[in-house]
Amino acid sequence: MVKHPLLTDDDRSLFQEAVRDAKPLPHYGKALRKKQAPPPYPVQSHLDEQEALRESLAAEWTAEDWLDTGDEPNFLRPGLSRQVLRKLRSGAWVIQHQLDLHGLDRHQAREALAEFLAGCVKRGVRCVRVIHGKGLGSKNREPVLKTKVKHWLTQREEVLAYCQARPVDGGSGALVVLLKG
Questions:
Q1: Distance of alpha carbon 120 from alpha carbon 103, whole angstroms
Q2: What's the pTM value of the predicted model, to 2 decimals?
Q3: For residue 181, what are the CA distances in angstroms to 21, 49, 68, 152, 159?
Q4: Looking at CB atoms within 10 Å, which of 72, 77, 101, 125 has the fewest?
């Protein structure tokens, strides 16, 4: 038995007396699991995104910003530079997560979108893609979710901006959304 330097012989004998009748608990086949390590945190990606946002917010407006209206859907929270939207359109932000709303009705889609955005904010995700589809499978081949999703996103406080996805990212069937960090 290893002797602890701070325990006296009296302490040891008192302890031995107290636990004399103790018996180990039955095992019942339970296995102790190790706690799972948290997922790795992409520090450099986070720093890059913070810098891109900082640059966008500090940049001066150019003539190109004033003329850059386009027909594609977009939203920019009031008070933010149009540079934020331009960088989002150009693909400067890495899409970190996505939600595909294909096959959902508008009630299911709204609930799924709310849960998705809340989860992304909780995990620190800044840029996401929301795939609403082009409406080719809906009644009269009209994009019901496309209009609804744009409206729902503008109502969400965590949404800083959104724009139509680049063709390689889904084009008119998806939106790229920038979230508060």
A1: 22
A2: 0.62
A3: 57, 9, 26, 19, 10
A4: 72
